[in-house]
Design a protein that fits this description.
Blueprint (H helix, E strand, L loop, with lengths): L1 H9 L22 H12 L2 E6 L2 E6 L2 H10 L11 H6 L13 H13 L3 H6 L1 H21 L3 E2 H18 L10 H16 L3 H4 L4 H7 L2 H25 L8 H10 L3 E2 L2 E2 L2 H32 L1 H15 L7 H5 L2 H13 L9 E2 L4 E3 L2 E3 L4 E4 L1 H4 L44 H18 E4 L13 E2 L5 E2 L4 E6 L4
Parallel strand pairs: 2-9
Antiparallel strand pairs: 1-2, 3-13, 4-5, 6-9, 7-8, 10-13, 11-12
Helix pairs in contact: 7-8, 8-14, 9-12, 14-17, 14-19, 15-17
The structure holds protoporphyrin IX containing FE.
Keywords: Heme, Iron, Membrane, Metal-binding, Monooxygenase, Oxidoreductase, Signal, Transmembrane, Transmembrane helix
Protein name: Cytochrome P450
Family: Belongs to the cytochrome P450 family.
């Protein structure tokens, strides 16, 4: 009987809410899956099994089970499922984020970590950040002068679009085929397609019919065509050499192409470059802007923390017109504010889905090959077993522990962890720190007339990256002490 029990345990699937035929648990997912899954996990536990359409799915929702997935059994489950949305945008999974785990991906990620996301390159794009932040300060100063509200959600997005576009292509998007609005729309649509519900992802044999009927397929294809034309224009421009300045990401990738860099099964081609550029655009723009917007939202809701972070920055910086990267190293409270923001508002609340490659067990439950795996980082940030008073915004909680956000502490995982960890942690963090520090240093912030602190909401908008649903409007007041 002992053997029998052991075998039974060995085959156990994790607890699971009851499901309907065909759709399985899809009806329980809702518009904001991380929230629905958080609620379900309270009932079914930190390892939970769902059938999403035809796809067996496991969701883990505690720091301990996240560690099992991302660290202990990383090598068993660090592949990605072949999702329909990302397929075309990634030129058949030639990118870093959606490519399956194989030799090609390993080499590509290694090269990109070395060349694209290195500390050296982050420092080399600092002049671009200086320039874009200065533009932002000037435009906010103008609103301060006129006493009109600033749409901070929009401003932060403008900042990250400006920096990413310059660093990647060497030009601002005004100089491309896409004017301001079209660039914006294209990025937004691509985001949507990467995160959107696609019937084909849950019903592999026929879901495409639904996508075709709903028009999703057509819109996706037109978005891919526009982006492709944009990349081509960028290649032409770089070939003609009619741009000045330092080596940008396109220069670098074209150089790797010319050097006939071999990746896994073949040479780096234009399609590989386009797929990598897609990751840089998608990864670089939304995540940092979303973080800055949430940070300002939480600081406005918590005036005590706002006062403290502004005093720290102003005492530290003194009278300077520009904050440098070295100054930022000293801003300990600001760093805690950002970590606290990531705890409550991780831009990728479910990370990017993984796929089990070889069987393993968590808490005695069997993870079968081909199972889709989600880590609910959003839920972990709210877990009372991991955090005291989880619902409170309290940057001080990081004072007496060494918890950082770089994937070593499984209660705080804004960048994921393990082999699939975000390769641009330093690039993303410095962008957020720099943008926020400047906005907090140069301005005091007030609510628009008639609004009180309790009116500031934290509603979320759905997608692969979860942002603040209602835009954050605040009235700036120039800090005149310098
Ligand atoms: C605040 C900023 C950022 C946050 C919070 C963030 C978050 C994340 C998360 C959660 C993942 C998935 C990790 C996983 O599945 O375990 C990821 C992956 C990725 N990120 Fe970031 N990211 C940020 C900035 C950036 C930037 C600036 C870039 C590029 C310029 C970038 C490029 C990527 C890429 C290529 C991957 C795929 C890695 C892989 O699958 O191996 N990210 N990021």
């Amino acid at each position: 009987t002992f053997n029998h029990k052991k075998r039974w345990q060995h085959q156990r699937t994790p607890p699971s809410p009851s499901r309907f035929p065909i759709i399985g648990n899809l009806h329980q997912i809702g518009e904001l899956p991380h929230q629905s899954l958080w609620r379900l996990s309270k009932k079914y536990g930190p390892v939970m099994f769902l059938k999403l359409g035809r796809v067996p799915t496991v969701v883990v929702s505690s720091s301990e089970t996240a560690k099992q997935v991302l660290k202990i059994y990383d090598l068993h489950c660090c592949s990605r499922p072949s999702l329909v949305g990302p397929r075309k945008l990634s030129y058949n999974y030639l990118d870093i984020a959606f490519a399956p785990f194989d030799d090609y991906w390993k080499e590509l990620k290694r090269i990109c970590v070395q060349e694209l996301f290195s500390a050296k390159r982050v420092h080399s794009i600092q002049p671009i950040k200086d320039e874009e932040v200065k533009k932002l300060i000037d435009s906010v100063t103008e609103s301060a002068f006129r006493k009109t509200p600033v749409n901070l959600s929009e401003k932060f997005l403008g900042l990250t679009v400006g920096v990413t576009c310059k660093a990647t292509f060497g030009v601002s998007f005004h100089a491309t085929v896409l004017n301001n609005d079209r660039f914006d729309k294209l990025i937004r649509e691509s985001f949507l397609f990467l995160g959107s519900f696609s019937a084909s992802d849950y019903f592999p044999n026929g879901g495409w019919i639904i996508d075709w009927l709903t028009g999703l397929q057509g819109r996706r294809e037109s978005s891919v065509r526009d982006l492709d034309a944009f990349y081509e224009q960028m290649f032409d421009m770089h070939k003609q050499g009619n741009k000045e300045g330092v080596e940008d990401f396109v220069d670098l990738l074209l150089r790797l192409e010319k050097e006939e860099t071999v990746l896994g099964y073949g040479k780096l081609t234009r399609n590989h470059i386009k797929a990598i550029l897609m990751n840089v655009l998608i990864g670089g723009i939304g995540t940092s802007a979303i973080t800055m917007t949430w940070a300002m939202t939480e600081l406005m809701r918590n005036p005590r923390a706002m006062k403290k972070v502004q005093s720290e920055i102003r005492n530290q910086i003194g009278n300077k017109s520009m904050i440098s990267l070295d100054d930022i190293d000293q801003l300990h409270y600001l760093k805690m504010v950002i970590k606290e923001t990531w705890r409550l508002h991780p831009p990728g609340p479910l990370l990017v889905p993984r796929e089990v490659m070889s069987e393993f067990e968590i808490n005695g439950y069997r993870m079968q090959t081909k199972t889709r795996l989600y880590v609910n980082v959003w839920a972990i940030g709210r877990d009372p077993d991991a955090w005291k008073d989880p619902e409170m915004f309290l940057p001080e909680r990081f004072l007496d522990n060494n918890i950082d956000a770089k994937g070593q502490n499984f209660e705080l995982l804004p960048f994921g962890s393990g082999r699939r960890i975000c390769p641009a942690i330093y690039m993303g963090t410095t962008m957020v720190e720099f943008g926020l520090a400047n906005m907090l240093y140069h301005f005091n912030w007030n609510l628009p007339e008639g609004m009180v602190v309790e009116d500031i909401d934290i509603e979320e908008s759905p997608g692969l990256n979860v942002s603040k649903k209602n835009e954050l409007l605040l009235v700036p007041l120039k800090y005149l002490d310098h």
